[in-house]
Amino acid sequence: xxxxxxxxxxxxxxxxxxxxMLAAKYRSHHQPVVIVREPGGxxxxxxxxxxxxESKGKMSIKAELLLFAASRAQLVNDVVVPALENFxxxxxxxxxxxxxxxxxxxxxxxxxMIDRINQFAADYWEPSxxxxxxxxxxxxxxxxxxxxxxxxxxxxxxxxxxxxxxKVSNGYGMIAKKHPNRFCVLDASEPPDEIxxxxxxxxxxxxxxxxxWP
Length: 214
Ligand code: Z5A
Prior knowledge:
By secondary structure, the protein is α/β, with parallel strands linked by helices. The chain has helices at residues 15-28, 43-54, 61-85, 96-106, 111-121, 137-144, 162-178, 192-205, and strands spanning 3-8, 33-37, 89-93, 129-134, 183-187. It is globular, with a radius of gyration of 17 Å. Bound molecules: ligand Z5A.
């Protein structure tokens, strides 16, 4: 079986937690699974990730957007498409909806133009389902706080501030409304096991509905 599943949401929403649980479930049924993260997932992509998250120098919004797209183009070419062609399940920890949410709704870049860049970078592949884990940005900050109540060191994107994350979160809501068939919106404040059950139920109900992939 091949499938392309993406997880989206603001930082700390629980994407990695759910992805690990889902991958374990597939593997327990002997289904090969590939997990990839954006930005990253290839040698070039991981170098771009360091630039995007760790760079201390100035970065223009256009440069930021195109670096995310460049990482994605390499990942789709080197990992995603070969895995799908090999009938594996690919689970993506973020895909192009992140660019629409963060650089589009968050930073204010024209969303229609981002759509075109996204399609080009992703070679027109789209997930069969996108799980959006919705978390209140204030709750996100609470999850980031360490046990002593302080937020640890923030990367370049995380330094954008709570107002930015509110815009990103609202943006995700708008993207999900625009693509109601692809998106499954979940409450990220529920316990991880409950969320996992809902994800499995959703995948079961969609198993005969795959996009018309090449
Ligand atoms: N970005 C962008 O701007 N444009 C793009 O096109 C792309 C990305 C692709 C990548 O960050 C950054 O790049 C990100 C978006 C931007 N930036 N910001 N800001 P990343 O890859 O380093 O990290 P992330 O994806 O944003 O988040 P994360 O830290 O990996 O979080 P997560 O995977 O969603 O959550 P988690 O690690 O599973 O859980 C976080 C904590 O919450 C952890 O302690 C868990 O134990 C806990 N948790 C998990 N689930 C629950 C529930 N259900 N209840 C309570 N606590 C929970």
